[in-house]
What we know:
Layout: H1 8-24, H2 28-41, H3 49-68, H4 72-76, H5 84-103, H6 106-123, H7 129-147, H8 150-166, H9 172-184, H10 192-209, H11 215-229, H12 233-250, H13 256-268, H14 283-295, H15 299-315, H16 319-328, H17 339-353, H18 360-382, H19 389-403, H20 412-428, H21 432-448, H22 452-469, H23 472-481, H24 483-504, H25 527-542, H26 565-576
Helix pairs in contact: 1-2, 2-5, 3-6, 5-6, 6-7, 7-8, 7-9, 8-9, 9-10, 10-11, 11-12, 12-13, 13-15, 15-16, 16-17, 17-18, 17-19, 18-19, 19-20, 19-21, 20-21, 21-22, 22-23, 22-24
Amino acid sequence: VLENGKNLKDQIMLHQAKTGLSIGKKNYQYALEQVLSALELLGEKPPQEVDLSKTVSHVIENLSRQIHEKENHSLLQPGHCTDKKTSDVMILLCDLIKISRLCKSKAYEEAATVRMMSICLDSGYTSQYSTSFAHYGAILMERALATDDLDLAKEGYRMGQISEKMARLKSLYGGHSLAIFHHYISHWRRTYRRSLGQILSIYNAQLESGDYFHIPFTTFTYVQYHLASGHNLSKLDDNLQLFDALYQDYKMDNHWTTQLPQRFVSNLLGETSDPFVLYGNTIEDQNARIDQMEKAGENDAVQLMHFLILFNSVLFHNPELSKSCLEKIKKENVSSIWKPWITFFQCFTDIVSLPTIEKKVEKRELEEIINRQRDQLLDWYDQGAVNCSFMVSLIDAEFMVTDSAGKKSVPSIRIKKFYDDAIAVAEEQELTHMEGFCLERASMRLEAVGAEELSAEYMGKAHDSYMEWNAIAKVDDLEENHATKLQLAKHASMKMVGENYVRQNRDMRYNPDRAIGGGRNLKTINIEKIAKKAGKVKKIALGKSSGKSPRDAPKGAGTSPRASPRRQKFAISIKLGKNEKW
C-alpha cells in the first residue's frame, strides 16, 4: 500500500493497517491518531479533545429531543443505507470507540457514539446500527446515575431495547452490542438470572466466530452476573477455569478480570483459609499487591478487589472491614451492575453501626443519611430496577429492629414479618445467596428477642440456602458459630416430619388393646334382620315396595317406553366413548 497506494481507499486501508498493528503492540495512543486521520480523510473531523465534553453534552441534548419524538416502531424499521462512504465512516467510528476504551478516553468514546447515532437517524440501517444504540443507551444510563435523572435512565433502557432487538447475535457488531446492553443497561429492569443465559450465548457465539477481541468484555460481564445472581458457585468455578485457559492461550489483556473472581470463588468454596484474602496467603501479601497495582495504574483491578472483599465482609458480618472497603471504593469507577449494591452495602453497614454511636446529633445525622440511601434505592425500584427490591426490604427490616434498640422490645412476630418480606423477594428472584443472608439476619434478630426456636428454624433454612449456593465456607461458618441452633433446627424438623406422618395416618396409630393374629371380638350377626333387609331391597329393585304394581297405572302416566336395542347400543357407545351414529 505504501508503494502503490494513490487513491483515497488505499490511504484509508493504510491507516487501518497501522491501527491494527498499533493495537497489537499496545500502542493505543498512536492507534487513536491513525483512526482520527482516517476519519478526517472522509470528511469527519471531531473537535479537539479538550472541547469534546461540552460539544458532546450539547449534541446529546439535541439527540434526546430528536429521538424522543420517534416511536419505537420507526426506530425498529429504518431504511437501509446504501452509501459506501457512510458505511466506511461507521466502521471507523466503531474502531474509534474501541480504541478510546483502551486509551481510557471517555470524551472520544462519547463523541464517536453520538456521531454514529446521528448517522443512524439520518441515513438508516448499517451493520453498526445496534452498536450505536447500545453505546448511546449506556451513555444515557451512566449520566442518569450520576445525576439521579430517572427519566434519562428510562430513555437509556429504551435505547438498549432497540439495540437488543436489532442486533444479530452471530455478527461481529451484534454480539458485542448485546454484551454492552447487558453490562450497562439490562439489569436495571430485569432480574440477573434472566440475562445470565443470554450472556453465555453471546460468549459462545463469539468463541465460534473467532471474535477474540470482544470475548474478554463478555466473559467479565458474565462473571459479574453470575456473582450477582447467586447461581451455583461450582458452575462459575468451572467456567472461570475455561476463561483462564483462554486468556493464557491467546495472551489477552487484563487477566485480573478472571483471576480475582477465581480466587474469590475459591474462598467461598472453602478451598482457602481466609475469605478476605484475594491475593497471596496473608493480608500483608494482598496489601503489597494492591500498592503495586495502584502504582501501575491498574485502578479498575484495585476497585474490583476492594468490592469483592466488601462483598465477603458483609456476608461474614465484619462491619469494620466493610467500612474500610467502602472508604477505598470510588463509586464512579464501580462496574454498572454493582452500583446499586454499593449503595445497599453502605446503607446496611451504616445501620449495623448505628447502635455504637452515643452522641444524639451524630446518630440523627447518620439516620438521615440512611434514609437518603434507602430512598435512592426505592426510587430506582419504582422506576423498574427490580433487583433493588430485596435490598429495600432487607434495609427496612434491619432499620426497624435497630431503630427500636433501647426502646420497647419488638415482638418476634413483627420481626418475622419484615424479614419474611425480604426472604420472599430474594426467593422469587432466585437470589439464593441473598435468601440465605436474609434468613441468617432474621435468625440473629430473633435470637436477640428470645425467640430461640424460631431463630433456630431460620438458621437451619439459611444453612440450606448457602449449601444450595455451594458456599461451603459460609456453611462451615454457620456450623462453627451456630452449631446449637442448627442441631435444634434439625431436631425440630425431624419432630415436625414425625407429627405430619402421624397426622396423615391417624388410623395406623398403635392400639395396645388390639390383638394380632386372632382373638378379636366379633359382633353377633342377626340373620333374621339381615334377611328382612335383603327382601326389602329386592322389592324396591322390582318396583314392588309400594303396594301397587306399576303396571296398574294408566298408560302414559310417568312411564317411559322401553328402549329399543339400537338406543341401548348408542347409550353404551357414548359411555365407552364411541361416536357411532343412529
